[in-house]
Amino acid sequence: QPAISIRNVTKTYAPRGKAPAKTALHGIDLDIPAGSLFALLGPNGAGKSTLINIMAGLVLKSTGSVSVWGTDIDEDPRRARASIGVVPQELNIDPFFTPHALLDLQAGLYGMPKADRKPLELLKALGLADKADSYARTLSGGMRRRLMVAKAMIHRPPILVLDEPTAGVDIDLRKQLWDYVRELNALGTTVLLTTHYLEEAEELCDRIAIITDGRLVAHDSKDALLSRL
Ligand code: ADP
Ligand code: ADP
Fold it and tell me: What residue stretches are annotated with the ABC transporter domain (predicted)?
């Protein structure tokens, strides 16, 4: 059974102000195999965020269906969402929260008992242990990015979805995030990330789907795909 199954998903954004209606996704069919480290690769405006946000329940699709670990996101959105940790592109963290408090709050939202939460362990794995009790407003962009990853993983979901995790991130932090993602994947987490860097897909991922203008134009194992380029 695939971790995520996307069937004929379309999305048309309603017109807003002078902007006309915009079809961002045209009939996407895609399976994300369980255990894969999967890149959704495409240029800016291709529809990557839209697709991820639909899976995460942040954007409503126009037509089609999405299942997460066999659960249809329309039939049981809470259950589907509990299987996914999402790292959005925006680093929207309340400046007066500490990493420790933020992770506790997030774990509470998922109904995790206190004893199971282990926020400090997670912060340590992401190199944030010494910032556990500092206000988020004092964290660098790179630290905030890592905190968003910790927030996505606090309930130990089997699937991690990251939207452009290393856009605008310096090379050291990029390598650090890649290592963390590889480690999670080796431990069994299915990872789906969007990127517009071919290098990122090539270095990190084992399967690649290419999206442009809201359409999938290729989808294969990395080796098969790169041998055709
Ligand atoms: P990305 O960085 O994923 O390419 P964009 O820069 O296209 O995202 O969009 C940034 C934000 O603006 C997003 O929250 C998106 O939903 C919103 N947005 C993008 N395009 C439009 C549009 N044509 N009309 C209204 N909102 C938009
Ligand atoms: P990507 O993540 O690949 O950069 P997006 O999914 O952000 O692509 O955007 C796909 C298309 O949908 C773009 O043309 C973008 O401007 C448009 N779009 C994104 N969000 C909105 C929105 N909230 N309202 C209207 N158009 C949007």
Answer: 4-229
Residues 143-153 have pLDDT tens digits of 999 999 999 99
Residues lining ligand 2, Cβ inside 6 A: 13, 22, 24, 42, 44-50
Residue nearest to atom 25 of ligand 2 (CA): 13
Gap from CA of 24 to ligand 2 centroid (Å): 6
pLDDT at position 21 over 90: yes
The stretch 33-52 carries a mean pLDDT of 97
Ligand closest to CA 45: 2
Give the atom of ligand 2 at the shortest distance from the alpha carbon of 51.
6
Looking at ligand 2, which atom is closest to the CA of residue 22?
Answer: 26
- The confidence score (pLDDT) of residue 226 equals 86
Q: How far apart are CA 19 and CA 39, in angstroms?
A: 30
Confidence (pTM) = 0.89
Strand 63-68, strand 71-72: pairing: antiparallel
Q: How far is Cα 89 from Cα 100, in angstroms, rounded to an integer?
A: 21
- ipTM of the complex model: 0.78
Burial 64-100 (b: 16+ CB within 10 A, else e): bebbbbebebeeeeeebbbbbbbbbbeeebeeebbbb
